[in-house]
Design the sequence.
């Protein structure tokens, strides 16, 4: 039973320059249950990319909140989204993260289903003495009430009461275009995805992806290594784009180095300027991309971009490129599924650079992710306190946040709801407001007014 009123959890008073979030939304199990119901099981959730089920009968499994999901390509090449739960007694049918199967056999009593979700057989049916009414029922896997693709990105909902996907993505769809358009052939996930968990709330990951403020504090070993590489001018196999930019340097003050955009429905982007550098694997395509998409859009593909499509998809592109799927397990436990996402058809050299830089920065064994997950777990311990429940990590950038876009968004025809331009030190926190305004909209009615 949730005893909170919305105003006790999100203190959103723009006219007074106040935005605060209560620790309770990160660690109260009753709020977590409501989030699953209202946010994950009540709206669009990212499931995976179409290329994960490339060939007929390919499938992968995913989650919408607590509900197990099966995405399968049928024999005719059509993708379908299903609840991965047997109509017999509810067991998960597909057991693996991905594979190829014409027929899925439930491990409990062997009911079987084809790649279009249709029931193919009920074990020992004739001997089963079923009543006639049984044949009148569907024994197929339940289809998702909503399942749509945008540029190869697949989303589903266990609720039919959702807007069309294009409306939900809104302007943020153009940021998915910046990923999808890097190759005419589209994108793929590089083999070697990694799943890991941390003992902290799912919104810690949601925020961290968009948090430029933590970089110089939480990742000192990575920054020291970049300095060393620069000084030794090493011919290290791992070049880094960070060596070629002042973005991470505390003293690079004054100029516009990047900023943030916020969109309706909780989607956000923070970004930084890298320029067209050979430290990026995309460099080999720089001219071709400018010819095809124009220079402005090409330049944006080379910017550092951390994109969140609320509530569970994040695509981070800097020295390499990562796709992350956030799966909340409980108020204080989260599973992350992460892959290197890459344009199809890039050269072996570009792919090698992408993978080396991915290992360097993104992998759980790399130099950034462990720093972040340790910080999440530190925060989660601190959330136990209600002595002063309000968190203040939403105030940086308040006086720099503007309604609408700016010159950097209009150049690619992007119209965000709000924007901030930043030097290397701003570390905008106002883009998180978008998450919590979307959160509040979904939770209205479930909490007191
Ligand atoms: S639960 Fe699937 S066959 Fe019984
Ligand atoms: Fe980080």
Sequence:
């Amino acid at each position: 039973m949730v005893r909170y009123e919305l105003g006790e959890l999100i203190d959103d008073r723009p006219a007074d320059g106040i935005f605060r979030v209560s620790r309770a939304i990160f660690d109260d199990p009753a709020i977590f249950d409501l989030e699953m119901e209202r946010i994950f099981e009540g709206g669009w959730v990212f499931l995976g990319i179409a290329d994960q089920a490339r060939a007929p009968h390919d499938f992968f499994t995913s989650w919408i909140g607590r509900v197990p999901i099966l995405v399968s390509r049928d024999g005719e090449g059509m993708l379908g989204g299903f609840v991965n739960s047997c109509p017999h007694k509810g067991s998960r049918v597909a057991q693996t993260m991905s594979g190829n199967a014409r027929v899925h056999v439930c491990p409990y009593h062997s009911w079987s289903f084809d790649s279009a979700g249709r029931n193919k057989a009920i074990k020992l049916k004739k001997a089963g003495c079923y009543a006639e009414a049984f044949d009148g029922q569907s024994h197929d896997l339940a289809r998702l009430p909503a399942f749509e693709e945008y540029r190869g990105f697949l989303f589903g909902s266990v609720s039919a009461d959702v807007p069309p996907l294009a409306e939900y993505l809104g302007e943020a769809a153009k940021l998915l275009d910046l990923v999808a358009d890097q190759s005419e052939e589209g994108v793929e996930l590089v083999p070697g995805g990694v799943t890991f968990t941390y003992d902290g709330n799912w919104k810690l990951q949601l925020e961290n992806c968009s948090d430029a403020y933590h970089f110089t504090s939480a990742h000192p070993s990575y920054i020291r290594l970049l300095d060393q590489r620069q000084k030794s001018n090493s011919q290290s196999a791992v070049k880094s784009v960070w060596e070629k930019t002042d973005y991470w340097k505390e003293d690079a003050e004054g100029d516009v180095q990047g900023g943030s955009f916020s969109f309706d429905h909780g989607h956000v982007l923070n970004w930084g300027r890298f320029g067209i550098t050979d430290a990026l694997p995309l460099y080999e395509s720089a001219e071709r991309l400018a010819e095809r998409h124009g220079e402005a859009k090409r330049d944006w593909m080379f910017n550092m971009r951390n994109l969140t499509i609320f509530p569970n998809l994040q695509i981070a592109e800097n020295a390499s490129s990562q796709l992350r799927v956030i799966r909340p397990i409980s108020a204080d436990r989260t599973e992350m599924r992460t892959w290197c996402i890459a344009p199809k058809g890039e050269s072996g050299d570009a792919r090698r650079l992408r993978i080396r830089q991915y290992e360097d920065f993104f992998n759980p064994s790399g130099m950034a992710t462990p720093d972040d997950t340790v910080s999440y777990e530190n925060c989660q311990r601190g959330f136990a306190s209600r002595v002063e429940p309000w968190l203040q990590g939403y105030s940086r950038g308040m006086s720099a946040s503007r309604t609408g876009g700016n010159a950097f968004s209009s150049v690619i025809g992007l119209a965000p709801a709000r924007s901030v331009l930043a030097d290397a030190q701003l570390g905008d926190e106002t883009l998180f407001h978008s998450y919590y305004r979307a959160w509040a909209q979904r939770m209205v009615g479930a909490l007191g007014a």
Notes: The chain has two domains: 45-150, 171-443. Residues 45-150 form a domain with the Rieske Iron-sulfur Protein fold (CATH 2.102.10.10). The chain has a mean pLDDT of 94. Residues 208, 214, 218-219, 368, 372 surround fe (ii) ion (ligand 2) (CB under 6 Å).
